[in-house]
Amino acid sequence: MTAAISVTGLTRRFGGVVALDNVDLSVEQGTTRALIGPNGSGKSTLINCVSAVDQWDGGTITLNGEELAGKNSAKAARRGIARTFQTLRLFDDMTVLDNIMVAMHHSRGYGFLSAVIQLPTYRAAEKRMREEAFELLELAGVARDANRTAGTLPYGHRRLVEIARALALKPTVLLLDEPAAGMNDAETVQLAELVQRIGRDDLSILVVEHNMDFVASVASQVTVLDNGHVIAEGTPAEVREHPEVLRAYLGASEEEL
Ligand code: ADP
Ligand code: MG
Q: What domains appear along the chain, each with residue ranges and CATH number?
């Protein structure tokens, strides 16, 4: 198997804080890996580096066999990477459908000018994109919200729209930072089903999540970070029993494990 994401010796410092210390992690093509760990352990920092939103101080990141040179997220998107953020980032005043279409326009190189001029080729592309956007919302289970203003949606639905928007970029690598945060149990199950559905040979997923039931239902492999170090790696069942993991989570509530 080839790795879609290969992180070797990754180090990221913020002043005196070593957010990532010599971290190794890989996601095999067509698989889903979960990244777990206590708050402040470096999960978001790792996602930010892999999506080239943030810089790093040492180590290498290789995506689909090509080494990532540094901070340049537009380039990363073109390389087939899409992500969601720990905090919601939708355009609240736009409709749900338009949120998806904006992402499509952007990634497919239709600028403002072509939208204004409205050439026939553009109108045909626009129609196709609208249909595709609606299909993505159907996939995410939020098609009924298509014409609502994004800001008026319940939180869990907005999170699902964010994933649909990330998929609009047709990624080969998808990074999800705590997608279930703030979701109720039913929404979390809906999210897990969505992540299972989108996982396929040409899409590899790295998902940061606390909820171990969620992790076990979507990921074949788990990496555990603590204080910027990888302290365990294995199947969900293996890491759940790992003594280092239990120690890192000591004091955490049962349901976090
Ligand atoms: P997690 O996502 O696992 O909760 P983070 O990756 O957000 O953890 O943070 C890891 C560590 O790096 C924390 O100590 C955090 O305070 C620090 N950190 C993250 N981002 C920054 C930043 N932009 N500036 C300074 N410190 C940061
Ligand atoms: Mg985080």
A: 1-80+171-257 (3.40.50.300), 93-170 (no CATH)
